[in-house]
Design goal:
127 residues; mainly beta; 4-stranded antiparallel sheet; 9 strands
Length: 127
């Protein structure tokens, strides 16, 4: 499986909030998101919301992140063919998509309660 590395640089303002988007559309599956130790969450309780810009679909939503570095491998839960409840495997938990979160367009990062007037890079891995 081929994996591409992409980055989004986010700058926060005096309130610790910032928004940035990918410079070009991405196509594939987001299999990992990393913050390699940037000071974006130096405010002590940063919220990260990463979405598909075109339809608002959530890629990753984190609340009150207190420290970097961090990495997550987002996976959407699968559903029944009727679109109802999430499928469960042997009562262990939800069945997750092995591919990651699908993306075919621009990706947007919104940070709230982050560090004051700082800039940092989030790394994305797309298959």
């Amino acid at each position: 499986m081929r994996v591409d590395h992409r980055q989004i640089v986010v700058t926060t303002g005096a309130t610790g909030a910032g928004t940035a988007s990918s410079g070009e559309p991405w196509s594939g599956f987001v299999v990992e998101v990393r913050n390699g130790g940037t000071i974006l969450d130096s405010g002590g309780s940063a919220d990260y919301t990463i979405t598909r810009k075109d339809d608002g679909g959530t890629i990753l939503a984190l609340t009150n992140v207190a420290a970097s570095p961090w990495q997550y491998q987002p996976r959407p839960a699968t559903h029944t063919v009727t679109g109802g409840t999430t499928n469960y495997a042997a009562a262990v938990g939800p069945v997750l998509s092995p591919q990651g979160v699908p993306v075919d367009g621009y990706v947007q990062v919104v940070i709230a309660q982050g560090g004051t007037s700082v800039s940092g890079t989030l790394d994305f891995y797309i298959s």
